[in-house]
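Incident log, structure service

09:12 report received: a user says their structure output differs between two submissions of the same chain.
09:20 pulled the input from the user's history:
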Amino acid sequence: MSEVTATVAAVSDQTAAKAEKQKLSNQFFKKGVCVAILSGICYGLYSAFLTLGMASGIWVEWGSPNAALSAFVVTYMLGALGSALNDTISAIWCVGIAAIKGKLGDFFRTLKTKPGKVMIAAALIGGPISSTAYVVALQMAGSIVIPITALCPAIGAILGRILFKQKLNVRMMCGILVCVTASFMIGSTSMGDDAPEGRLLGICIALIAAFGWGMEGCVAGYGTSMIDSEIGITIRQSTSGLSNLIILLPLFGIISGNGVGLSGELVVQAVTSFEAIRWFVVSGFFALFAYSLWYKGNSMCGAALGMACNGAYSFWGPFFCWLVLGVMAGHEGWSIPPIAWAAAVVMVMGILLIAMNPLDLFRKKEAN
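09:34 re-ran on a clean worker, output below:
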């Protein structure tokens, strides 16, 4: 009887241990979902405060007819400057946090490795190209472009299939179709007679940002799977900010016919405009967590579900732009057409369909 009792006790202990392990696993999964959702919220906040910074202080003077700046400089060079300031300040936040956590040495060592170089390549795609296109699109068409840029998971899935032969099944193709339909819903708001001038071009430029971020996601997937996510974010933001400041801005200055000197003058004026730069400090802070929480959430609940939760920024972006710029700052023109709100929800559903089978959510619930 003692042997039977011992066996029963052992089985009971094993069952209890498995139940406890499953409980911890479920808690970790749910926490990952919350982290991934929070990353999308931070993305919306970063977009709102970045736009507010570019509508304050010296930026208001630059946008006035008396500024004597060409249309090219106002639209594209200032867009690159806004992106450069945001990513550079975000990089300073990253380096500071890495130093506090004692990871600064790891940052410099990782730069010399192959995964580190892959992250640099990904940052060059997502920084000077996509981030600048995103900021320019925001200035031209407003927060309506944010759901358009949320097409990047769909574009990433297509590019992953073409470049890396990754799986692209019927469900994912249906999700891509849903996302494209949502983008057409948003684009339809730029076709009316009352649409602001430049909105259609802004939406087209937003597609460039979506394509670049989709490409960045494909390239960075390799790098972030082999290095610390916080180190990866530091590399990403540092590369993006410096390449914008050192390469893209002077290049735009040359193209505009004003030479390299104009870029330096604009940077100095922007940094010394306290009324504006304070908002860039806030946007850089939220940009850091928009990316770092995305990577962390992906590692906790899986890249598929993490991408879907993060993709909800197609809603959070317009929402916080309306709240921060429209309600808090009192700027006009940040109201969102009802069809754009509906399209943002449709976009989230499409991203979820690309990332995972929605039925898995119910299966997990039943398994619990």
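09:41 both user submissions now match this output. Likely a transient worker issue. Closing.
09:42 reviewer note: The chain has a mean pLDDT of 78. The chain is about 80% helix and 0% strand.
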